[in-house]
Amino acid sequence: MAQYAVLIYSPAPADPMEITPDYLALLERYPAQVEELGGKIVTGFALQPSTTATAVRGDLVTDGPFIEAKEVVAGFFILEALDLDVALKIAKLNPATIDGGVEVRPLFVPPSE
Length: 113
Fold this sequence. Notes:
The protein is of the alpha+beta class and 113 residues long. It has one domain: 2-Layer Sandwich (Alpha-Beta Plaits). Helices cover 22% and strands 37% of the residues. It is built from two helices and six strands; from the N terminus they run βαββββαβ. The strands form two sheets. It has a four-stranded antiparallel beta sheet, with helices on one face. Strands 3-4 form a two-stranded antiparallel sheet. The mean pLDDT is 94. This is YCII-related domain-containing protein. It comes from Micromonospora kangleipakensis.
């Protein structure tokens, strides 16, 4: 089955300790919805708030993410799905789409020699 990275975007600073009970209930329901569509979450991680990020560009090291933005990467997970259409259906059900968004990218598979 194809694998996709699903990047979760939430309003800055995307502090996981500030998740509301309603949002948490939606998150707890999500894995079952993924399975109903034939997908499988392989692994996933929530990130610390964007205020803990450190950006590195060449020799310059600065506090915070690369850019000032209303939304920041709050987490990611690896999804197995039949194809991109199914992956997008699964992504649309993610609660992050309510006030943020998600980005779906196929994982790179190096060409065989």
